[in-house]
Fold these 3 entries.
Entry 1:
Amino acid sequence: MDRRTDRDARAFADPCRGTDASALLARLAALRAADLPVHGGRTMAYVYDAGLTALDDLAARAQDAVAGVNGLDMTAFPSVVTLENEVVGRAARLLGGTAGTAGTFTSGGTESCLLAVLTAREHARRTRGVTDPEIVLPVTAHAAFHKAARLFGLRVVSVPVDDGFRVRPADVAAALTPRTALVVASAPSYAHGVVDPVPAVAATAAGHGVLCHVDACIGGWYLGHLRLVDDVPEPPPFDLSVPGVTSLSVDLHKYGYTPKGASVLLFQDAELRRHGWFAHASWPGYPVVNATLQGTKPAGPLAAAWAVLERVGTDGYAELSARVHRAVRQLVDGVGEIEGLRVLGEPDAALVAVASADPRVDPFVVADEMRLRGWYLQPQPAHAGSPANLHLTVTAAAADPARIAELLGELAGAVARARELGPPSVDPGLIELARGLDPDSLTPEEAGLALEAAGVGPGGALPARMAPVLAVLQALPAPLTERLLPEVVSRLYPGADARSGSGVPG
């Protein structure tokens, strides 16, 4: 027996002869130590925490129960059909669906939005003969819709918003053409937490025979359950019960507090949903039919979402939504008492945008000060009439009055320190030079020089204080910023040689 044969035989006899399991887990723990915390309510973007620790164990056990199941073929794994039907059914009942409402479980809000746009494109092509489709988007619409337009070949028609950051139906009407495949409204918009006037927008779209999608990814589960609470104001109408709304997306891994990878896309009926499906039998392999962008689909997120939704229940979500509502009001009122800050718009949901009311207080510097003290508030650069601000997502884990009071105290201190430090300086000469660059012809070397001028070093490590970097990126023309952002990320992922070592002794 040669050495290769002997090695293979030993490997098959002992399939777990690699790195020790405890060393691997220790390595993961060490890596996670540098991450933002996902529990406790101090990370006010990206993560959603119910503050109910038992849900984590339930979700993990549910995922483990279906770890090997592949949602690609529902005829081979009928459990995924039952679970998906029950999850979609729960979402439809909450969000204005009828007996004919159809839906699809997806990997997240971006995939739900992509599928909504793809479905609208195909619907416009097949029913109206539209070959050069357009999508009408408020400037506050999520970036996922711009991604969808780029991927699926739609032209974006941007529509401004009013002083409260809500789109005006008259502007939507003026943007419609025979090529419009889809109109989008937000419930709420991510940047400011306000709900667009969905009934008027949907009626405008329907009057022109155009589909209307409501992006309720971040707010649908929260707002839908908040309507069930007696002692709070009724949220604005936004769901499938509104005439003219033809589809709606809602994420479960946000205010459903399920593990990541769980969203639902609802359609007014199965016929509309069918336009977004892919089927292929013209090859030698098995017949393929996909309702999502994925082929192979892990059943874990679906099972975990199902388990968490069933465990918390309607009354549980209504209580969590009520707690968050009270916390948002406490936060908004408290921000109004901090000299130098103001809330943008009038939030309808659990998202709050906080801007400066004092030119000496830069929001990006405030964000740095908060992060250095264990809080993450998401910086949002100025755009289309919205000034630079800080985004706060309020979840149930942060909804304790004492925790909000702690946050407000930290925020007041950060504002005072930011006032002393002053805004970051931006070299006017650098900005003037950058304005002359062509983003499409920018070489990696030129991009590297621009990033180094902005404070991003060649090694990929980002500075502890991001305010100077964000100030420069905000001052540059948007096309140039969009060209530089991938360069920033690419520095975090160097060539394969740099990643070859696991750092774990083996």
Entry 2:
Amino acid sequence: MDGTLVGLVAFAALIGLLAIRVPIAFALAGVAAVGTFVMFAFRTGAFNPDRAWRPTSSLVFSNSFDLIHSYDLSMIPLFVALGHIAYKAEITTKIYHAARVWLASVPGGVAMASVFGCGGFSAITGSSIACASTMGRICSPEMLRMGYDKRLATASVAAGGTLGSLIPPSVLFIIYGIFTETSISSLFLAGIIPGLISLLGFILVIWLWVKRDPAAAPAYPGTITGRERLEAALQAWPAVLLFVIIVGGIYGGIFTATEAAAVCVSAALLIGFAQRMLSVRDVIDALRETVVQTTSIFVIAAGAKIFVAFVALTGVAGDIVGAVQAAELNVVLLMLAIAAIYLILGMFLDPIGIMVLTLPLLVPLVEGYGLDLIWFGVVVIKLLEIGLITPPVGLNVFVIGSVVGKDVPIDRIFSGILRFLSIDILVLVLLMAFPILSLLIPNSM
């Protein structure tokens, strides 16, 4: 049986299963298993199931086993645990409190502090959804109580929460690195400048919004003394320390990404207990949440690994690469087509689902054009970041909507998000046009 035909039918079946809300891990593994069975059963033309059982089971079990025993995958539970422990110890939230104190007198300062808080939270946890959920509970209700425009109070946190995709450590970068066999440490470093540009872009949106409509952000009540500013800055030192360990340790060649994660978890525990902000119960709760979250990621990753092996077996990726190269598309048109695919999928699927669905086909294509996979990884993560706030299924928007409840309808949040989407598109164009923005730090190692 023709492998390309089986591969294309399998992709169509996978999209259909995802459309009816079949869990992505089961959809990936199920389609791959059935597709592999069909290919081997019809290998000689006539249907012979006895010939298909052994290779199908080998593909399913060997690939999932190899993935779960991957050394790189071990950093996911470490970074997830770091995020939960740092939150329990109030390390992450102190970044927001420090930014709020320093920016209190600036028009729209609390909204700007929310974005800085999201950036700081992301620099430790690496999860956009967790960032939006946690910071949304802290920032949005406070801005609503102060009389902020409902769109600004919610959209700023929803957009700021996406920074967890780019600013290291990022779970999406880890998964991308595993499936493309690229350096995860280099990917972390490549995300720093794009992440900071995105953060500053969101600050610019808030500044322009408030300048045009001062009523959208009432002045902060009261005054902040210099002593209060100094105390707030000093209280944020644990978060700064953890970020320096991650980035400085990797850049300086002191740690691998996995080692940096382990050191940061230990440091967060020591700081939490030393400051009496952590209890044994908090640690147990954090570890329980870590197990639930990482199990979900591992199951999806295992299903994706099985599907990648199936795609390689069919040869459909090579056929698509050959067809695109025969069409003689230039790099600009290729990247525009890839961006369109990701933006469309981002309206309906979650980031991990999009990545594991598209990478088996796009990575060989990108390699065929001689493009840098580290740079391409940053572009992909930025596209996934945009998908988190793109209607109709912007996951971060619905997370914020669940936090604020009926006070702010979803359509009002999306209305405010459009301004942040515009700057995201501009940053995406800059990253695609100037690869040096992503490669400057990794290339300097």
Entry 3:
Amino acid sequence: MNGALRRPAFRRLTVAWTFSNAGDSALYLTAPIWAKDLTGSNASAGLVFLALGLPVVLAPFAGHLADRMSRRLLVVVVNLVAALGVLSLLAVDSAADIWLVYAVIFGYGCVGYVTSAAQSGLLRDLLDDDELAGANGLLSSIDQGLRLLTPLAGAGLYAWFGGGAVALLTAGLLLVAALVLVTMKVQETPPVGRGERAGFGRELTAGARHVRSVPVLGQVIVVVGVAFALTGLANSTTFAVIDDGLRMSTEFFGVLASIQGCGAVVAGVTAGRLVRRIGERAAVGVGLTCLAVGIAGGLSTSVVLVAAGTVVVGLGVVWMVVGLVTLRQRLTPPRLQGRVSAATNLALNGPQVVGTATGAALIASVDYRVLIAVMTVTILACAAVLLVRGAAEAPRTPSAAPSLAPNTDDDRFTGIVQS
């Protein structure tokens, strides 16, 4: 991580990431509370997460866009557009306006896929292989660690002044992020020229075909995709745990999110070392194990045990994300980073959207503890698959030069895939 932070452009990217993710956390973690207060329904709160996840079907287009223009400029523009969209939430006043909450969250989800794809390419252009894991750990810990303060601030702002105040806060933070990125200097990998491109269909699906062509990457994504499908249930069971298990108000959701940030901060600081020590695939397995154990804490009616489980979830999420993202970035050529990032998001978040919809449908008729038990067992099984395979994988010492995996589109990229 120290090597990455010596680069001025990465420091600016980190500052912009901090502001934009503070806005994200304030909005994402307040919107479900807002939805439940407007409608009185756990299902309505869960549908906020569904609206956030549905844009996954557009992820390939986001990745294609990120590989066809300046990624820095693209992130600046979409942050400004997102800020304008969030301000429309000032019009929400009653349950009749709940559709606007869903619409804004859907649009914000689309923006998230564009910025994620663009940032993957920016990191690959900015950093060497041995800097990726630490940098990803830092960014993930910022993303999750902001939950220490942002949810409490967002929930407090919401409780005192309403959802409109949270919208103003988020829009302002996005504007600051855009302004910081305008000042960032980076030598970007130029996109493939028009004359060198394949047909639109092949260009659009290049990310998915690359994932299939690299066995270790494809295997990890499939296993994590199964686990993600089950975590979608948590978007509805969380409110049942708070209401029925702990007998707390919905605002306690913000407290739990902040507690999760404690584990995330520790995980972000240690993620680079973990990846170097046991390898990316095994790091993902360890993260999934922590995630399953933490989710199981929701079976308790003790605030202390639920809170402890939430800390463990924070550890698991960051270790899992850093291991997977570092593996993906390392085994993907610069000009494919956006599309492979988008293909990965589709493979992971698509099943999670289905899980979220399933959870919203089942939570009214199935005991939430049954859903938590199913999540725990399945995610533990996924972790076991990766840990058994990862145990035979010798940890790799990253090289200073980027490793290029074969590109299934054409012969522009060649090299040896290190696994």
